[in-house]
Amino acid sequence: MAENQRILVCAGTGCASSGALPIIDILKEEIKRQGLEETVSIVGTGCQGFCEKGPTLVIEPQHILYTRVTGEDVAEIVAQDIMKGERVERLLLLDQETQKPVSTLSDIRFFAKQHRIVLQNCGVIDPQKIEDYTTREGYKGLQKALAEMSPDDVIEEVKKAGLRGRGGAGFPTGLKWGFCRQTPNDKKYIICNADEGDPGAFMDRSVLEGDPHSVIEGMLIGAYAIGADEGYVYCRAEYPLAIKHLGIAIKQAEEAGFLGDNILNSGFNFHLKVFAGAGAFVCGEETALMASIEGKRGMPRVRPPFPAVSGLWGKPTNINNVETWSNIPHILRNGAEWYAQFGTEKSKGTKIFALTGKVNNTGLVEVPMGTTLREIIFDIGDGIQSGKAFKAVQIGGPSGGCLPENMLDLAVDYDTLTNAGAMVGSGGLVIMDETTCMVDIARFFVNFSQKESCGKCTPCREGNKRMYDILDKIAKGEGKPEDLDILENLALTIKETSLCGLGQNAPNPVLATLKYFRHEFEAHILEHKCPAHVCSALLSYTIDEEKCKKCGLCAKNCPANCISGDKKTSYKIKEEECIKCGTCIEKCKFGAVSRA
User: Fold this and answer.
1) 164 and 158 in contact (C-beta within 8 Å)?
2) Cβ neighbours of residue 200 under 8 Å, at least 6 residues apart?
3) Inter-axis angle of helices 151-161 and 322-334, to 10 degrees?
4) HEC states along 383-415?
5) 256-276 pLDDT, tens per residue?
6) Which of 30, 208, 257, 533 has the fewest other C-beta atoms within 10 Å?
7) What is this structure's pTM?
């Protein structure tokens, strides 16, 4: 038995929803029962990244990963692994390629091909203990800034590092800080935008849950550089664990002298509060976010003036998102040159992606900028589920674009993706296989944008609704060839004339799918067919008489009662009465029902 063993149990939102919290309690009881309390510690961590395999558990120092652990597995893990050093093979990850169990983190491709900077503490430390953060050099970046650097030095260091805002726009962070610093005022604010609203995105939530002190330290360094003495973390209320951990971390930082007045006897003052937002997507836009903090309805305003000049309550304000702030301590601690070695010439550092959809390994992935989509999806994500063919990747959330297979070797960085009609965005990566209809996908994202529109400007309010109506018509087989030109012109007009980023980027999924998957739109309009067999209005179901065994399961389960037949006569579907629900094809055990 190894000395000083630690059992790290993922207690982030994903694994907690799969039953991780009771496992921690059972583990504590079992360790106590075996008399191992002095040599084995149990740590409830933030997200370990491998969300689809949760609840996950890591044994240190051997770095053994167990997946889909249940309370019933605990006694066996303790008896076999902790006490005898023998692996519980049935709980190890099965490699998709070799079909053999893989035990250590370094041998698992999902982890081996990542480079974790922002996520290096997530899944490793107890986010509710400041000591866990400080023992891993936490707050060293702040101490260095206050003791050795002027505010201008700090800004210059961030500029040299080449960090660009991770919230979506990719604006150079150091330059943004400089604008705010140069604005004279006796009161300035900084804000952390944690209003993560993209479908499928959970990067910021995981960082706040698993390593909240890194965000606080980043904000402290930013406040010192800009000259702010007050800040807010705007976090959506749907993230209760993140808000809880932030609250604990702020209190601990205050008690340790990292937050408050005269921080580390430097004369620098900074106070931080958490503001729980109501979950409106538009509040991710910085002027709408500030309006929300001020107690107003979360709606964007015309810029200029930019927040660096007139932000929260009319004072100079700087806003960055969670991932951007969390990068800052690493840059200060290790230097700009160290950070700039990662990434591409114009996109430095690493980026976290939430890998979801029809991919074998879903979860949080942090890779250097410039990594290709193919490496992320097939090397780290382990390819497409059920051996199906890759079709597209939606990158950048509802404001991003869908890229086809021939663009898999595209480097993931700000400029390359923008040129391809997509965007890094906040980092959502949704993988689609051959069963995905691109008309349906465009309709889904436009529907999201029209529902989340605040309604302030006409192009966004009316334009997205009109785009949705056209897409819905095409999906029902009622589209006309001229609809594609109308859709394209409408999309470009909305992009050019909308007030804020939500409206300006809402048409991106439509433009990208029209560009790369136009043939699917044309099939819906000209042939009245949905190639992916998704759009129900365009589907037809038939029963093959030769394959049909006359069991009657299809007829018994048909909710529309539109299947006739018996043990002597063939079963048939009355197409005019069929509601295209697909129940018959699901229930047939002989593959006699086909869909076209």
Assistant:
1) no
2) 354, 356, 357, 397, 428, 429, 430
3) 100
4) CEHHHCCEEEEEECHHHCEEEEHHHCCCECCHH
5) 999 999 999 999 999 999 999
6) 257
7) 0.93
